[in-house]
Design brief:
Strand content: under 5%
Largest sheet: 2 strands, antiparallel
Distance between the termini: 83 Å
Helix content: 55-70%
Order of helices and strands: HHHHHEEHHHHHHHHHHHH
Number of helices: 17
Shape: globular
Strand order of the largest sheet: 1-2
């Protein structure tokens, strides 16, 4: 675990430190597109944040290659090289799109080619675990088509949800955290070496997201752009392929006894095997709804609009930060709820906790006008924008010049005559005439 934490911290540090210079580079090269109709930000913001994230990926892989406990991943498997090859290609296409706005079909073709590059180097789905049946081996063509489809769907799902400041990076980071815990449990709990690459990929992906989030939280100083969203989508898909299609469930020794008993025994283990698919459940739902909505209107499935889930949260009255936090909540509930069920599938309290949290999430959705405040004791550790706003001091009443500036009264003037003299003197001061 210590080596994984070191890899995560190095990846996060490199990503964080490079994001500032990358922002200046994006501004200098003009990678600041005009605000579009579907955008929710008010000022042009530079893109190309994916450049810093890609170099964070390279730094994480380089550090892991020199760690004694993680070096075996590179020696016994070609998956890290396959990931880096596919990531470099999709990142390059993303950079070009952030600058020149490539056609959607060109990006789709690049996504398929990137997936094909990984398949050619061995990162592909070899079999599928089916409860009650066992392990079903796939032919080469079946594995290739399924791998490419999974990569393309995951990339576009993450890309579609990247519509608010910090949304995509935060959701992927939360979900990947749950996936990391499960993959780590498979490796060290069941001593399955095939789960080691997926564990490493998850740690690096968390570091990339954590390093970029401080620059991307609302109000964002830089966007990750397609160079970042497609990159983290591809890494997420590679983690899913590595652990779902290459870890043989038979090594878990769950297919014992009758078929019925094996099905019940395998259920809590099979659910986390598709955890990478559940952690993108919200982005995938958004993707499917977008395709159906646009097709129903006679538009292209790739046409941009303001009908995504995060746009709807803003329309019903939620603030920008609140909409992001709600999406975070649902991502964490799905991912960690699935993880908890896999560990204690017979515990009824897990189902009750998930039910209560789901009800809480629905209440939050129905109270868009409620704005929580940070407790006073925690104001010292939160950013200034989350602190209570101090009431503006009441303006002091304006008094006559008699209090602000004593007006000299000529000798011999008293009573109403003196008051009239002060009034005429004040009028001349306001008019700018000499006294």
């Amino acid at each position: 675990m210590r080596d994984y934490l070191l890899t995560l911290c190095v990846t996060a540090a490199v990503t964080y430190l490079l994001t500032g210079p990358v922002r200046k580079f994006a501004i200098a090269t003009g990678a600041m597109p005009e605000i579009r109709a579907r955008d929710v930000h008010r000022e042009p913001t530079p893109r190309l944040g994916g450049i810093a994230m890609f170099f964070g990926l390279c730094a994480g892989l380089l550090v892991a290659d020199h760690l004694q406990n993680l070096n075996s991943v590179f020696e016994q498997s070609n998956e890290p090289r396959a990931l880096l090859s596919g990531a470099a290609l999709i990142w390059l296409i993303g950079v070009l799109d952030d600058k020149f706005e490539l056609d959607a079909l060109i990006k789709l073709g690049a996504q398929m080619i990137s997936a094909g590059v990984m398949v050619a180097q061995g990162l592909t789905i070899l079999w599928l675990p089916i409860p009650g049946v066992g392990t079903v081996a796939l032919t080469q063509w079946q594995g290739t088509l399924l791998t490419v489809a999974l990569v393309v769907l995951t990339i576009n799902a993450v890309n579609f949800v990247d519509g608010l400041d910090g949304l995509a990076a935060g959701m992927v980071c939360i979900a990947t955290g749950a996936f990391f815990l499960y993959a780590y449990r498979l490796w060290y709990g069941y001593t399955i070496e095939a789960a080691a690459p997926a564990t490493l990929f998850a740690a690096i992906l968390m570091g990339m997201c954590l390093g970029f989030l401080p620059h991307n939280m609302h109000p964002a100083r830089i966007f990750m752009g397609d160079s970042g969203s497609m990159l983290i989508g591809l890494i997420l898909a590679a983690s899913a392929i590595s652990i779902t299609g290459q870890v043989d469930p038979d090594t878990l020794k769950i297919f014992e006894g009758s078929t019925r008993q094996a099905t019940h025994a395998a259920l809590p283990v099979f659910i986390p095997l598709i955890l990478p698919l559940t952690i993108i459940a919200i982005p995938m739902t958004d993707l499917v709804l977008a395709i159906v909505r646009r097709t129903w209107k006679g538009q292209s499935p790739f046409a941009a609009d303001r009908g995504h889930l995060h746009h709807r949260l803003l329309e019903i009255g939620h603030s920008h930060s609140r909409a992001v936090l709600i999406m975070y909540f649902w991502s964490a509930l799905i991912a960690f709820g699935t993880l908890a069920y896999s560990v204690h599938s017979t515990s009824m309290w897990i189902v009750l906790v998930i039910t209560v949290l789901s009800a809480l999430g629905l209440v939050l959705l129905l109270l868009p006008r409620f704005s929580p405040r940070t407790p006073r004791w925690a104001e010292a550790v939160v950013p200034p924008r989350y602190r209570r706003r101090k009431a503006a001091p009441e303006p002091e009443p304006e008094h006559e010049a008699a209090e602000e500036e004593r007006v000299p009264v000529p000798a011999g003037l008293h009573g109403s005559t003196a008051i009239g003299h002060r009034s005429r003197f004040s009028d001349r001061r306001k008019a700018g005439t000499p006294s």
